[in-house]
Structure formats: C-alpha cells, structure tokens
Sequence to fold (724 residues):
Amino acid sequence: MVSKYPILDNLAISPNILANWQESINLIADIIQVPAALIMRVHSGEIEVFVKSSNDDNVYEEGERAPLNTGLYCETVMDTQRELLVANALEDPDWDQNPDIELGMISYCGLPLTWPSGDVFGTICVLDSKANSYNETYRKLIARFRDSIQLSLNDIYARSQESAQARREIQLLSQAVQQSPVSVIITDARARIEYVNPAFEEITGFTADEVMGQNPSILQSGNTLAGRYRDMWQSLTGKQSWQGEMQNRRKDGALYWQYLHIAPVLGEQGEVEHYLAIQMDISYQKEQEEQLQQHAFYDLLTGLPNRALVLNRLEQCLVDAKRNQQRVAVLFIDLDDFKKVNDSLGHEEGDELLRLAAYRLQGGIRRGDTVGRFGGDEFVVLMDGITSSNDVQSVVEQLLERFRELFRCSGREFRLTASFGIALSPGDGESAAELMKNADSALFHAKKRGRNTYSFFTDSMNQEAARRLQLEEQMHGALDRGEFEVFYQPKVDVASECITGVEALLRWQNPVLGSVSPMVFIPVAEQTGLILALGHFVLEQSLQQLQQWQSMGLNDFTMAVNLSPVQFRSTTLAAEVEQALAIAGLSGNSLELEITEGVLMSGQALVDDTLAALTAMGITIAMDDFGTGYSSLSYLRRYPFDVLKIDRSFVNDIADDPADRELVCAAIAMAQGLGLKVVAEGVETREQLRILAGYGCDVAQGYLFSKPVPAGELTAMLLEQRKL
Fold:
C-alpha cells in the first residue's frame, strides 16, 4: 500500500539526541503530571511510539505500532499540520470512538513534527486518563520542546510559536479550592486578602492568619517589571481577567516563579465584589525551560552556540557594525581530513577530539568574539568591531599556531590541522547569508591551496565556486547522456618509433560547457565520488576496444589505463578489473594500470592486497607522474612496479635545462637498475627524443607522435604501421 506520507525512515536519530529527547519527554510528563508523554514517528501505514515518558503509569510501550486510518489523534495532527487539543473525548462526538479510549486515555494535546524537507516525522503529544484542558503554560512547554526537536531535525530553530489560547476563567468553587494543589487567593474589591487555601500556605510559607487583610503585594520580590503590574491593573480595572508570570518571594526570603491568573468576580449589578487569584509555582518549570533553551541554542557536544544562535548573533553584529561604521568578519573553519581521523579513532574519541578543537578555538580568539559549531567538523568564528583585515589575520594566524600543537586523546597523540575561509562585511556581503556563503567559498579556496592555511574571499573565488557548481550540475548524468568518450594516445618504442602501446584518456564534451579539460573535471569527479563510475567506464570501453583491435590482428601492444586514488580505496577494484578482462576476453598481460603515489600514501593494507591481486593476474603496474612527489623512491622499492613514467614537466626542458637533463638521466638509470621499463611523457620535439634515446629511455609518448585521438583514428594509424 502506498503511504499518504513521504516516509523518511532511513534518516537515523543519533543516541545523543535520543537521550536528550528521552530526558525532556520525562520532564514534560513530570511537569504536566500526565500518565503519558510521547514522541510518535509515522511509517508507511503505521505510527510508532518512538520515545515515551518513563513513568510507571504510562500505558504505551516504546516501539509499539498502530495502524493509520483508524481515527487516531496523531493522524489528525499530521494531516492538518496543526495543534490538536481534545479536552474530553468521552464528551466530544468527534472523538468518542477514538482507539486510545480503550487504553483509558480520554484527553490529548499534540503538535506536528516535520523533517527539514517538510515531510512528516510524527508528533509530540501528551495524554491523560482524566479530562484535561492543558493550560497555556503546559501547551507552551510542549511547543517549546517541539521546537527543540525541530532544531535537531533541521538545524533551524523555529522561533515563532503558536500563540496559546487564553486560559479559561476559573470559577469560584469553594469545595474544590480547599483541596487544589495550586495557590488560591480571594480578596475584596480593595485587594485585601479574605481567603487563602492550604496550597498558598505551603508555597509561600505564610499562614492564613499572617496574610489576612493584607495586600498580596507582600509577596513581591522587587524583580518583576513595573510595567507588568500596570498591565495587570489596567485589565482588572477594566473588569477583565489577567494572567502572566511573576517572580515573588517566600516568607523565608527565597525567590520563586509563579504563573498567576487573576479574575474580577462581579456582582449582580456588574460591580467588582472580589478578585480571585490562582497562583501556580512554576519554579521547576522555569528551570526546565532554561535547560530546553540551552538545548535549542547550544551544541550538545561542545557547549558552543549552534547554527541558529550563531546566525542570530551575526545578524546583531551586522546591525551594530553598520551603526558604528565598523566591519564584521566571519571565519568558516573546517578540520582537515577529520573524517579519516574519526574513522580510525571511533566516534567516541572523535567527539572528544572535536571538544578539544572547540577549546583551542575558544582560547585563540579575542574577548567578545563568538565561536560556534555548525555541525560535524565545521566551526564558525564571528569577529565584530573590525577596522582592517590585519585584525582578522593576526587572530587566524594565532589559531593556526594553536592547531600546530599535538592533540592528546585516549592516550594517543594526533596532528590535526584546520583551514579557514574569511569574509568581511560590507565588502564581501551585507547580509548574514551572503557573508556565510562567501566565507564558505574562501574555505574551499584554502582547501585547494593545500589546507592548514587561510584564504580571504574575493570575487574571483566566488566566480570559481559558481563555475564548480555548474560543473558538478552538468557532470551528473553526463555519462548516461553519452557525453564522455575514451580517446587513445600511442606510446612508441624510442629505438624503432613503432607503436607498442596506447593510453586510454577520458574526454568530455558538454553542450553547455563545451570541451572540458580532464585537469578540471577529474578532481571534481574524485571529490564527488563520480570518479568510480567514470573509471569503470574507461576500463570497460578501453578493454573492449583492445579486443576489437586484437580481433583485427593488431596484437603487439598493451592498453594503459589510469587509476584514481579514490578507485583504489574500493575493496572491489581487483574484482572489477578481473571481470572487465573476462567480459572482453583478454588476458591480464594485455593491460597496464597507471597509478600515482597518491594511491600509496595511505599505507593501508588494502593497497598491498589490491596490488598483489592485480599483479597475480599478470597486469603491468606503472608509476605515473614520477618525480612530482616527495617519496617516490621508497614506493618503487616497496611495491611491485613494472614501468616508470617520467612526468612531462621534466621532459619539457631537457633540451635547454642541464638540471632537468641530469634528473631525467638519473631517473632512467635508477629505473634500469631496478629492472623497470621507462616511459617519457610529453615528448614534442625530435631533440627531446634524441636525448631520451641517448639515455636509454624505452618508450616515448607525446604530441611528436600523436595527440590523444578517437578509436577510429588510432585504428588507421595501427593499420598503416602494419603495412610498413
């Protein structure tokens, strides 16, 4: 059956958030004094008790599910996206057949919960076994807790709350007042106390005899705003009831919060004869509200301001800066390679490392600046009162210096660096959203520069970010649209100048972007994960093409295919290569795989195992771009390479630069000493080829022979060579 709700069951709730929800739902049940406080989660055709209050008289079981379309309270809340209040289902013809009545629950108050996408998550609700109208204070508490959950679900604090309906005017029922758990005061028309109930004596510490004839102002603490008293008396003298919160003082001097409802009692002629005041001690509730407020605006892990509070403070900083003709700086911070560290540590130690990073950030800023956590390993620093970029630069350099110290966690030491993107108002943006976006663009630029550094925002960076976004958008689906094609560049024997191999190279022709260089799209594909599909495409296409050439009798060369470090992190790489060879009907000795030292830098056992499996298939392994890294020699000794490819940057100047000639000569001699075949890339002139031949280079590749061409053109070249 198709659900009428777009169900998002795959979105997990973290244990920390669940613990927070559990604690708060228990508080709600305790404060409102109901047998059941629940967080409900909708599924396809069912609704589940997701979190329940832990009190003993709760008749609901966590994980229990009930079918939809049976007239449940919560389903109406989800359908209408509104608060539902049912004071007494037994007396309400719309609800007197509700299934919860069988469990003894006859009153209900609930609010909807949604995911960030707007899809329904479920509800938060309370149920009671007796009639209950849920006064304004209780409904406000439920609404505030609902807002806290919404923040957990979508990182946006819903500051607007539905206004609660006015609390119904309480009738003077003397037999009930005496036993009421709330404080009741009755005064005469001149506000002199005529009656107090036992709850008043218990809450305030005053006896009835001590307050009789007194004005209730004897309870005033001096902390309530005078305007609140004016509003109260304006309502009462207008023969209207008044309600609100006040902080009063007990007989022993202790302060307490009370929720107060005062109503004039009118005589037959409409004159005020008495005032009825009902006071509820809400000190405990206020304490819990403060805790809920803390949860709503502060990150639970680090204690730092969360996204909602940071953005709120940034808005205020911008207002102050405009008034004072100053500038505001936003520092967007990302911990470098934190995912790798977190994966190796485990999440518990990873959380501790985030707390340590937050502590270091707090210790490196100016007094009055704000450090906030945006989520994950992303932090933000707000700096106001800025007069020049030098003010920001000194703080950032101090923070970078603090991160150069080793982190000690769980008895181990870790090196953890950070990258900073900086945007300043008003030049880089006048709104909070624009400043945050541009600081994020600057952070991306800092990451591209090598990380562990900082970058200020510029217009060119913004254009670069827009170009990258467009590139990502066009890349998605480009493979299915047939925009990618494999080209082939010949590799020739230096001595005979005959083609002995070809290298498969991917090309992209996009209708919007035109011809996109691999230097541009390959890094983006690696960062987005699309490189896996592209790599599989190149391997499959090139091997099928090689099989076609072999079927034509063109057998005397190998196919070289580049592998990305991202592909090498896949545990299925060896199996994929083996399957592609089998589908094409080729043996492993027909294939040469080119890898860079970036593949090897992780030092993971997976790399060793994959290389061993590929070598066992008879596949040739080549080190690409030799000389551009810093530890290639150690890799050549450790791993089973067959071929060394000298990078074009060294070949380019060998005819003019003696230093490059010596480097190339040394690389060839070293490779020959290790029994490796040498391929020189980027050969464009006869002079370069002559020098390489003199040094004993085996194979050359470059525009001197051919640029990368489609399969058809290379086929013609191979057929022409066979005629010779």
